[in-house]
Specification:
Layout lengths: L2 H8 L5 E2 L5 H11 L3 E6 L2 E7 H11 L25 H11 L3 E6 L2 E7 H24 L1
Parallel strand pairs: 1-2
Antiparallel strand pairs: 2-3, 4-5
Helix pairs in contact: 4-5
Length: 141
Amino acid sequence: MRVREILRSKGDTVYQISPSASLADVVDRLVKFNCGSLLVAEGDTIIGIITERDILRASAAHRTHLDQFSVRDHMTRDLVTGHPDDEVSSVMGLMTRHRIRHLPIMDQGRLAGLISIGDVVKSQFDALAVENHYLKTYIQS
């Protein structure tokens, strides 16, 4: 199975935020959209990602109001990305090696979507369930 199939089933909606926004704004959007990360963009250019983990680190380090700090100062700049034609199993390894839970998917320099480790696990589970069904049917026939 390829990443393209995950994007096809989950859609290509990706939530973004400006680097000048506050960390309080990030929290508001994460809660509003019930997601774990936002891509940081300047216009059409993706420059980073900010995650729940980044918010926790900032909160632990500063112990003050999140509206006093900008996304720019706490985002991850070195993005690890995938491609729609990547195998789900290789993406799972990539995410595990880099210890990340959210992976932007780029196609020809453009954002194609964003997948989470939950999306990857679900796709693997669904594939195994189908395989299990066919094996049981084969055995019983």
